[in-house]
Amino acid sequence: MKRLLATLLFFCSVAAFPQHNPYFVTYNSEMEEVGNLELNSVNVIGSPRGGNTFWGSQAEFEYGVRNWWSSALYLDGQTTNNESTVFAGYRLENRFKLLKKEHHINPVLYFEFAHTNEANKSLREIVGHDLEADQTEPNAITRGEVEKEIEFKLILSSNVKGWNISENFITERPLVSGDPWEFGYGFGLSRPLTFNPSQPGCRFCKENVQLGAEFYGGLGDTDDLSLRNTAHYAAPVFAWQFSPNANVRVSPGFGLNNQSHRFLLRFGLTYEINDFGRKVKKLFR
Predict the structure, then answer these.
(1) CATH number of the structural domain spanning residue 85
(2) Cβ 68 vs Cβ 94: under 8 Å
């Protein structure tokens, strides 16, 4: 089991997130192409006050089912200094594009089922009263606290004069009677350095680099719908498409209040397998 977890964490450090989305928390309206499989990884390193430095990892396998529907499986893991390495659970995600053609605002509905434990430190969204102090509890305690949750997102995305502008409205709830709905947000904007193509095969050209920023945080819950005891972050984003099938992303995030982590370093890498579905079908003919 330890070798499996170590392999998962290693994979997370060298594998992926969608090449068309430079953000780490915010989603845009782009969907995976039909039949393609992306091997994605999202990683975050944090050092909470009063706790040990951690590395949270999330490996994602995303498949384009239809032009309007993509589905994904996430595997979560983390390792914490002076503690242990933990497999934190899995998530099943589906996204549905509501409009066939591009419009000024492109809406997408997101649904996720998560079966994870409280040791999860992937921090893929900040909702409710998620605070820095939550990551200071030892793995020996949190790994045994298992939760099942559902999460919904309304994703709105626009492309204006080369800029992508995306807004996410997030709500999630543990599948336990009496627990409140929690709310959060994500907002991102980005663009390539240029839209003018260079010579074929150029890897270090401006059109392969995207720069931008995202902002995200919690909005309380149905028991306390306010900004009191919530965390908020601002993070520049950098994405480099270094090959037709792969990109790398980096984002240093900065906490905006005392309930937030002072600093979070996020990084990821993408690899896309074209026509994966067709290739698998051929194997069974």
Answers:
(1) 2.40.160.40
(2) no
